[in-house]
Amino acid sequence: MITREALLAKFTSYSPHVDPTALELAWDFAEKVHSHQARASGEHYLTHCAAVAESLIEWRMDLPSVCAGLLHDTIEDTATTEMQLRAEFGEEIAMLVMGVTKLDALKFESRDEAQAENWRKMLLATAQDIRVIVVKLADRLHNMKTLNFLKREKQERIATETMALYAPLAHRLGMFKLKGELEDLAFRYLYPEEHLELSQKVAALVAGSEKNLLETRAAIERVLAGTNIPCRILARSKTLWSIYGKMGRQAKPFEEIQDALGMRLITDTVANCYALLGIIHTNFKPVTGSFTDYISTPKLNLYRSLHTTIVSPTGELVEIQIRTEEMHRSSEYGIAAHWRYKTGESARDAHMEEKLNWLRQWMEWLQDLNSPREFLDSLKTDLEFDQVFVFTPAGEVKVLPAGATPLDFAFAVHTAIGFSCVGAQVNNKMVKLDLPLKSGDICKIITKKGSLPKKDWLNYVKTARARSKIRHYLREQGIVA
Predict the structure, then answer these.
(1) C-alpha distance across the termini of the chain, in Å
(2) DSSP string over 256-269
(3) How many CB atoms lie within 10 A of CB 322?
(4) Three-state DSSP class for 392?
(5) pLDDT (tens digit, 9 = 90+) per residue, 86-143?
(6) CA distance 183 to 166
């Protein structure tokens, strides 16, 4: 377990102008109230609190978040009251802890319903402060790392929940490093035999491909030597779960998966990202159809990067990702990367509120869903990785989850367009409002003044935004409860 002094040193290394007294007090408080508790591993309970705080420090979160990490189980697992926490640590830290604490006072008809309500409560707290979910993800990460001490049935249940909800949420928040860790940890318990076999094959591939990666890196460094473009090169391997998923989607054995390994080129500006792309494509043969530009069209979770695949000097395929340092930090830590400390002051990124606005809106739409089961189903839909890029007739792109319909598209354009929608044209052809859209489709919504939502529209939409707006109108009219 990390020591109190080491934790403080790690925190002050990136936030030297912040008084760490609250962190010392939170450690001492957690140590005292958890003093008679132990984990399933037999370790002192404080090891878990310290590990959660350590992850938050790795993600460079602010002082209240790290304190909340140390204190996150005090309300649920000790005699500590909310009032006591407020008195000891103030409103902000208490609010974060309460947001993370599970809802256990209410009685539910089923475990499913209780789980849905827990998520609902946590996300409503998150709509007020995004840090709540970041603390919860740090908590889940350490629980997954210590899953081996639990009974098999509990391992499978927690791993299933992690794969279905926590990993997709990390993805949606742009925390790709965490997403990969959670998926691989869950993979180990859900498919132990496949996990063991694949981990051995990947280890052998990394060892066998070291020569190819070194030669590719040397070749890239040679062609960049004559330029003034700053660039650092990192090798990377796909996570086990992403490789396993690709094997399933493409119905191919591991030996035929061609981009299990790759390289990242990290530079200083967007202009230099495109300059590097031009140099790479000029000096190495690119694979047709492999280029994707997530800089000009970022993903919903703010992910930005250029992706391309080239034929290496040894004849093997290597995926190349090109991004700026800021994009790299965002791709590793996502939302957490936007809590940054400036010289002499504790301040958030000036543009963070704008960056997080889409997430807040999404959670506000989820608030309007009354049924816990409907809430969980809508949450899972909106967390899906697969997205489609659909264009308005004017060329504006709307990013929607796979399976979204023209009605979802109408509400994505504007609520008023959704309300007055009477039909849709996709690629100049009239279509039904429940037709699943595909990337590249051009969708034109036909509206009629005075037209209003209908109850059966709830069967046509996939997105939380559209469902929330339709349900809100129908509830006002007394059509649904």
Answers:
(1) 51
(2) G---SEEEEEEES-
(3) 24
(4) coil
(5) 999 999 999 899 888 753 333 444 556 666 666 666 666 555 677 888 898 999 999 9
(6) 9
Provide the 10 A C-beta neighbour count for residue 218.
11
Query: What's the angle, vertex CA 456, arms to CA 455 and CA 457, rounded to 5?
Result: 90
Beta strands in 314-362 (DSSP E): 317-324
Q: And the tokens for 19?
A: 């008084």
- β-strand pairing of 306-311 with 285-286: antiparallel
Percent of the chain's residues with pLDDT above 70: 82
Greatest mean pLDDT among 104-118, 138-152, 332-346: 138-152
* Cα distances (angstroms) measured from residue 400 to each of 153, 384, 476: 36, 10, 27
Q: Quick check: 414 and 467 in contact, CB under 8 A?
A: no
Tell me the per-residue pLDDT of 268-312, one tens digit each, with 9 for 90 and over: 999 999 999 999 999 999 998 889 999 988 876 678 899 999 988
Task: Of 178, 111, 135, give the one whose Cα is nearest residue 49.
Answer: 135
What b/e sequence results for 157-177 when a residue is b if at least 16 CB atoms lie within 10 Å of its CB, and e otherwise? ebbeebbbbbbbbbbbbbbbe
Bridge-based pairing of strands 232-237 and 285-286 is unpaired
Distance CA 428, CA 442 (A): 8
Q: What value does the mean pLDDT take over residues 377-385?
A: 64
Domains by residue range for the chain, with CATH: 4-189 (1.10.3210.10), 192-335 (3.30.460.10), 386-476 (3.10.20.30)
d(CA 8, CA 23): 7
- Sequence-separated (6 or more) residues with CB below 8 Å from residue 238: 246, 259, 260, 261, 262
Closest of 367, 468, 375 to residue 113, by C-alpha:
375
Pair 143, 298: CB distance under 8 Å = no
Contact in structure between 400 and 387 (CB atoms under 8 Å):
yes
SS3 track for 102-157: CCCCCCCCCHHHHHHHHHHHHHHHHHHCCHHHHHHHHHHHHHHHCHHHCCHHHHHH
- Extract the tokens encoding 190: 């859900």
DSSP conformation class of 305: -
Catalytic residues: 76-77
Contact predicate 120/364, CB 8 Å: no
Q: How far apart are CA 470 and CA 421, in angstroms?
A: 12
What pLDDT score was predicted for residue 231?
95
Average pLDDT, the chain: 84
| Backbone phi, psi, residue 308, to 5° | -150, 160
- Distance in angstroms (rounded) separating the CA atoms of residues 168 and 140: 13
Phi then psi for residue 291, to 5 deg, are -80, 130
Q: How far apart are CA 461 and CA 412, in angstroms?
A: 11
